[in-house]
Amino acid sequence: MSDEGAFAEAPAGDHATAPAPGRARGSVAVDVLEYLAGQFVDDPSAIHVEVEQGRGGVTLRLHVAPDDMGKVIGKRGRVAQSIRTLVRAAGAREGIGVNVDIVD
């Protein structure tokens, strides 16, 4: 018996528009946001993401410890912009628009 079928890919486009079974739309984007934020902060346990469904897509509100706010924003907002770009790409892979707000 061969295991070749175990790694067969879904037809093109099928995985890009629907979330995995049992997962909410936007959950991959939330996972990506939590992972990325966790790489910059000193207190990863303080990371909290609020999800708001809207007409234009999903808005993710990132909360971090006050001492970590500058690390997540970065010089001239470059880290924050990079995080937004990557999370937006993760949302696009699921077929949804994602915006990231960093709140204090």
Sum this structure up briefly.
By secondary structure, the protein is an alpha+beta fold. 38% of the residues lie in helices and 19% in strands. The termini are far apart.
Biggest beta sheet summary: 3 strands, mixed
Number of strands: 3
Coarse morphology: globular
On the 0 to 100 scale, the average pLDDT is 83
Indicate the proportion of strand residues. Answer: 15-25%
One letter per element, helices H and strands E, the order comes to HHEEHHE
| Radius of gyration using CA atoms only | 16 Å
**What structural class is derived from the secondary structure elements?**
alpha+beta
- List the uncertain runs: 5-19
The termini sit apart by: 56 Å
Number of helices: 4
- Which percent bin holds the helix content? 25-40%
Largest beta sheet: strand ordering: 1-2-3
Written overview of the protein:
The chain contains four helices and three strands. It has 104 residues and is an alpha+beta fold. A three-stranded mixed sheet has the order 1-2-3. A hairpin with a 2-residue loop joins strand 1 and strand 2 (57-63).
Compile the SSE list and pairings.
Elements: H1 14-17, H2 27-40, E1 48-54, E2 57-63, H3 69-73, H4 78-94, E3 98-103
Parallel strand pairs: 2-3
Antiparallel strand pairs: 1-2
